[in-house]
């Protein structure tokens, strides 16, 4: 339905229902509109649509351009990035290509080798260290003893204590 | 050109600009006044109207032919205009009229008598129940068909006619009483 026809129809309707509201100036469209506004409107809308779609396209590639510019303009960034990358690559290569460390298997040691090693080391020890080693050799201490031997050791110990106290 | 033809043209990449021009030439003037009644100034109306068509263009695939194209556009336009008005209300120190209609001031020039009449009419509309006011505005100002109003408000044509009738009588009586005092 055309605008004019619809307007007349509604005007007639309100005249029948409420005549006081018919033909009022506020029902008419009031207000200034620029000359040929509606003719130019479609061009403006189409221009806005074209601009927004091109902006969307440039927005999609914009971040790539930004990164590219940064790469070209900042040599320091390039060098540092290359250094980091090379370190990462070298570490990775080493991890993949390095042979595993040999694991010491003590059961494979020859007793003769062990003895010679210990003798060579003993030469470096002083008397105190040697006596400590002797003290630690407690094998004899726990050998089975008779009651008489044990009594003799205790008496000897008990005899020594008073004599030591006498010096104090 | 029918609504369906316009929609098909817009959805066709080769003809979408042509379809958009048809859409605007058919509905821009009616939508303009719908929006301007809400936001008052031409510049704001222009912005909202352009946004309405851009939004419609981008969402044309969502249009379902169950309602008329104008009803669909009307819904977009009023939503845009009301959103704009709410935004302006938040910014403004002076609140704008509560009613959806802008009846006075701004670019619309009226005589003193008309200004008084508009103020009375505004008061009369505020006295209406919400649904009656909506129906009255859509019919009296926006000149929508009952079928379109029915689509927008989900009411039957008979109920809408009755509602409009009651609303118009109430407004008229309100204005008569105001004039008598």
Per the principal axes of the C-alpha atoms, what is the gross shape of chain A? elongated
- CATH class division of the largest domain in chain B: Mainly Alpha
Element-level helix/strand string of chain A: HHHHHH
What does the average pLDDT of chain A come to? 74
- Largest interface by residue count? A-B, 31 and 41 residues
Distance between the termini of chain B: 52 Å
Domain count of chain B, please report it: 2
The major β-sheet of chain A equals:
none
Radius of gyration of chain A: 54 Å
> How would you classify the helix and strand content of chain A by structural class?
mainly alpha
Helix content percent band of chain B:
over 70%
Estimated share of beta-strand residues of chain B: under 5%
Q: Oligomeric state of the chains?
A: heterodimer
| Measured distance between first and last alpha carbons of chain A | 132 Å
The CATH topology of the largest domain in chain B comes to Rna Polymerase Sigma Factor, Chain: A
CATH architectural group of the largest domain in chain B:
Orthogonal Bundle
Search tags:
heterodimer, A: 168 residues, mainly alpha, 6 helices, elongated, B: 181 residues, Rna Polymerase Sigma Factor, Chain: A, Arc Repressor Mutant, subunit A, 8 helices, 73% helix
Question: What is shown here, in short?
Answer:
The complex is a heterodimer of chains A (168) and B (181). With 168 residues, chain A is mainly α.
Overview of this protein structure:
The complex is a heterodimer of chains A (168) and B (181). By secondary structure, chain A is mainly α. Chain A is 70% helix and 0% strand. Chain A has helices at residues 3-17, 37-73, 75-97, 111-122, 127-136, 147-167. Chain A starts with a helix and ends with a helix. Chain B has 8 helices and no strands. Chain B is an all-alpha fold and 181 residues long. Chain B starts with a helix and ends with a helix. Chain B has helices at residues 3-11, 16-39, 42-58, 69-91, 112-126, 130-141, 146-153, 157-180. Classes of the chains: A mainly alpha (168), B mainly alpha (181).
């Amino acid at each position: 339905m055309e605008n004019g026809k619809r307007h007349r129809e509604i005007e007639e309707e309100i005249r029948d229902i409420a005549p006081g509201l018919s033909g009022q100036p506020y029902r008419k469209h009031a207000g200034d509109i620029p000359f040929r506004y509606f003719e130019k409107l479609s061009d403006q809308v189409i221009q806005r649509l074209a601009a927004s779609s091109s902006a969307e396209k440039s927005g999609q590639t914009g971040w790539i351009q930004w990164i590219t510019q940064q790469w070209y303009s900042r040599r320091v960034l390039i060098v540092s990035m290359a250094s980091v990358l090379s370190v990462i690559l070298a570490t990775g290569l080493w991890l993949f290509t390095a042979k595993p460390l040999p694991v010491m298997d003590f059961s494979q040691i020859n007793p003769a080798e062990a003895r010679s090693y210990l003798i060579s080391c003993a030469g470096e020890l002083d008397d105190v260290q040697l006596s400590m080693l002797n003290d630690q050799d407690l094998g004899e201490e726990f050998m089975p003893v008779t009651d008489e031997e044990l009594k003799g050791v205790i008496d000897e110990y008990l005899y020594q204590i008073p004599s030591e106290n006498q010096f104090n | 050109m029918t609504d369906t033809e316009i929609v098909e043209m817009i959805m066709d990449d080769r003809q979408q600009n042509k379809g958009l021009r048809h859409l605007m030439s058919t509905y821009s003037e009616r939508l303009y006044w719908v929006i301007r009644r809400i936001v008052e100034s031409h510049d704001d109306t222009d912005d909202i109207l352009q946004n309405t068509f851009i939004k419609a263009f981008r969402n044309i695939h969502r249009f379902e032919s169950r309602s008329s194209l104008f009803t669909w556009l009307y819904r977009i336009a009023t939503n845009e205009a009301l959103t704009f008005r709410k935004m302006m209300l938040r910014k403004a120190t002076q609140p704008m009229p509560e009613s959806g209609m802008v009846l006075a001031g701004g670019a619309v020039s009226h005589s003193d008598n008309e200004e008084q009449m508009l103020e009375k009419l505004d008061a009369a509309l505020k006295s209406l129940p919400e649904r009656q006011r909506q129906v009255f505005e859509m019919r009296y100002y926006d000149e929508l068909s009952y079928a379109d109003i029915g689509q927008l408000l989900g009411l039957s044509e008979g109920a809408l006619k009755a509602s409009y009738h009651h609303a118009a009588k109430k407004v008229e009586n309100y204005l008569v009483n105001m004039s008598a005092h």
